Amino acid sequence: FFFLIHNQLHVRTIVLCLLHLGKTRAQMSCCMLSGNQMTLHMTTANIYFEHLRLGYNPNIYMARQYICRVPVHADSLKSSYITLTSKDCSTDIQDYLSIIYPTRVLGGIALCGKIAHSGGLDPEKVIEWFEVQRLLGVDKVLIFDLGNPETLNRVFRYYQNLGILDLQPYELPGEPQNRSHDETMAVLECRQRLAGYEFIIGHDVDEFIIPRRDETLRDVFKKQLQREPSGSGFFFYTQFFITTWKPTNPEEDLMVKRYRRTTEPLWVSYKYVYLPSRVKAATTHRLFPYNPPFNRSRVPPSDAVLHHYRPCKLDYWGNCSVKTIIDNTMTRYRDLDERVARARAATSTKPQWSG
Questions:
Q1: C-alpha span between 245 and 220 (Å, rounded)
Q2: How far apart (Å, rounded) are the C-alpha atoms in residues 201 and 187?
Q3: pTM for this entry
Q4: Which domains are present in the chain?
Q5: Largest CA distance in the chain
Q6: Which of 78, 84, 86, 283 has a CA between 20 and 30 Å from the CA of residue 123?
């Protein structure tokens, strides 16, 4: 395991995220060290969350979270380190990780962009994605870096310097190196690192939650909470803008304005926003609220939808001969072109269709 997160505000608990082989059921203990490497405490680690449906597959590294309840004053945790073990506690600080305190951002919106890896992202499209998120009012984006080309790293550094991107190193542990790993690890990690924000969005870097009216995401989320004061999270219908189809407006410079032909809103591959203060854990498409009265609901497509830009899903739609509509919503963002142009110039990025 490799990431360590401190969470919870009024109780002294620590949540640790790790990957384990599906057959692993060893009893784990929490060990804490102070800055001078004196053992503070050893206690039983209890499972906080795991994929029960997949957790017993012996061939996959599955995501699991443990919780450690630490009977020490919270101030002493700031100079302490923690680890999990199935043996005796080590006294070597190299075997431990620092405890991280989520930054409190009152009314803040954070976005979990999951994992970026091996050049799988187009730098130009990533620029468009970030600029749309900024226009929508997103305060922080968390992405895990599994190794990317310099063309994409330049874009990441640009948004790190602007303060919107938190880019965390990521690796896939264990042998053999091609063994399957649970993508939920990054999503669970986001819930803990971003716990200080009021809202956490969960979707990929080719997706956008777009309000139907000219308003920010914060406006949409607040209105939804007014309707449902006990809401813990809200799911969005998806419109698929299929890039395999010819662009409806090839004269446009931006992907989000070139492609306007889309499916109608579908209850497929839906994504969400949630309040971490009301949600225990989140996976790619699911939320797990704390006990009632907190609930989950769908946002009406008349209020906001998820725009997903992707090639045709041949395994799902065949030749993609599906009912479509034209959606011109993205033309609302008139200064998006100028913002993207500035970012392209700063990162030496060109769109693929520029020749």
A1: 31
A2: 10
A3: 0.89
A4: 3-98 (2.60.40), 105-354 (3.90.550)
A5: 66
A6: 283
